[in-house]
Amino acid sequence: MIDLQKLIKNPDSISNLNFETISEILGQSRDIFKNEPLLLEFNLENSEKIIVLGDIHGNMQTLIKLIEIFNKEKPKFIISLGDIVDRGPKQQECLILMLSLKILNPNKFFILKGNHETFEMNQAYGFFYDFMSKFKDPNKFNEILEVYKVLPICAIVNNLILCLHGGIPEDIEILTKLKGLKTTEINQSLINSIEDGIFQIIWNDPKDALKDFTGSFRGPGIKFFGEEAFNKFMNANNLKYLIRAHECFPEGYRWFFDKRLLSIFSAANYRGPSSNPASYAIIKNNEIIPKTLELS
């Protein structure tokens, strides 16, 4: 049995793990995720806080710094908005480190599904081939895909703040459909009613100077959404704020729609040196406080 505490204190050692150990971590985390609902719900008392982090994309330097912040700030909950792998230099290491945090803190640390928690994106942007260069067997990668299949999709804090990876979907009733539902309970008729909404939750983007939904350069079925569509969705679901990730901005984070939607991104220098600071968000007293991360 691997000592996960020791692994977290020495994340460089993850690079040397054999697949048997990785498989053990994947299996333990999968067993936890499959018992979580697709829509997570959290309640905070006064002064309690949640830390929300965005895309990591294999950036171990940023992730280690964020873990230091977790230990210092001692939030009640931590929510990752997904996109742990692809593009960065330490993809497997970041994934295993985050799954280890989940196993050790199953009721505190939560991971939502991003668009890069999919086989298609891992093939297109590097993680699959990074994995294959180490372990040579595509069947072993299926164990990672099994974890992806059971990740939660979104979270609501104090019935007011929605957290997800990409954006609001055209299906205004999607949150009601997801509420209380676990992946182990999904049958084909349920899949048909929620799959388009889930796809847009992990892919859609906000866009200023736009009213409704329109097609996106990202591909078929993916949408940009404007302030009118955003307000309609949020009001229908009695929500005040939305925190999402999915896009990298030079300033680290960006507000949209009269400061009701915050977009964060937690991989520093994503497009090259000094291209962007990492960012994260703190939820406290039903307000959202964006933060940028200074890397030494």
Describe this structure in words.
The protein is an alpha/beta fold. The chain has a single domain (4-293), classed as 4-Layer Sandwich (Purple Acid Phosphatase, chain A, domain 2), CATH 3.60.21. 36% of the residues lie in helices and 19% in strands. The chain is built from ten helices and 14 strands. It has helices at 4-9, 19-33, 60-73, 91-104, 119-125, 127-135, 138-149, 174-178, 188-203, 227-236; strands spanning 39-42, 49-53, 77-80, 109-111, 154-157, 161-163, 205-206, 213-215, 223-225, 241-244, 253-256, 261-264, 278-284, 287-293. The strands form three sheets. A six-stranded mixed β-sheet has the order 1-5-6-10-12-11, with no helix packed on it. The chain has a five-stranded mixed β-sheet with strand order 4-3-2-13-14. Helix 3 links the parallel strand 2 and strand 3. It is globular. 41% of the residues are buried. The mean pLDDT is 95.
Query: For the record, what is the CATH homologous superfamily label?
Result: Metallo-dependent phosphatases
- What is the helix/strand order? HHEEHEHEHHHEEHHEEEHEEEEE
Report how far the terminal alpha carbons are from each other: 34 Å
| Shape call | globular
CATH fold title: Purple Acid Phosphatase, chain A, domain 2
